Amino acid sequence: QAYLSYSNIAALTHLARKPGWDITKTLDNVRIWTHEEGAVLSFKVEMQVKVPSHVAFSLLSDFSLRQHWDRHFLTCKVLQAVSEEEKIYHVTAAPVTGHQPRDFVILVSQRQPCRPQEPYTVAVRSVTLRAMPPSPEFCRSEILCAGFQIHSNSSSSCTVCYFNQVTSGVMPYLAANLTGSSKSIEDTALECIKFLE
Questions:
Q1: Which domains does the chain have, with CATH numbers?
Q2: Residues facing 148 on adjacent strands
Q3: Interatomic CA distance for residues 9 and 30, integer angstroms
Q4: Beta strands 120-126 and 86-93: pairing type?
Q5: Tens digit of pLDDT for each residue in 97-129?
Q6: Degrees, nearest 5: CA angle 50-173-15
Q7: The predicted structure's pLDDT at residue 181
Q8: How far is CA 131 from the centre of its chain?
Q9: For the whole model, what pTM was predicted?
């Protein structure tokens, strides 16, 4: 478990530091970036939020609150509290037209910054849990690497960056968006900002 949580945080930090991010869209307080490497597509959503970074961190690290702003999340329950910084959740996602509803078993690892210039981190990855085998009503999907980095801008504002390394399980939710026929990433980002503020 210690290795899993360490590699969860490390994978997100590595993804965030990769060079070669291309900006694809800029709105007032949201910017969307993509990164392609071979068959792997990653995206980053950067949001300017008018709350202190520690407040954004406490709200975003509690995944049971995610349904309040992310309409892709239908249910989210804690399966296991591994430690104060680590929880395993079972998430069910709304079905996309023509697809079976999906579910995910995810490890959410949260870390406060060790030094002032470091961000708060909430890292997410899929795990297998014997107590939660795949069920026939859902298509069990995988999150390779996703999560938030929260950088403090001032005592009352921060920049929240959401990252996701896209797998086939997440692709149906994004395909229409990245081709420009849907605005779900932007809408979700704006809902997230509204929720945090």
A1: 1-196 (3.30.530.20)
A2: 122, 162
A3: 24
A4: unpaired
A5: 777 889 999 999 999 999 888 999 999 999 999
A6: 60
A7: 43
A8: 24
A9: 0.90
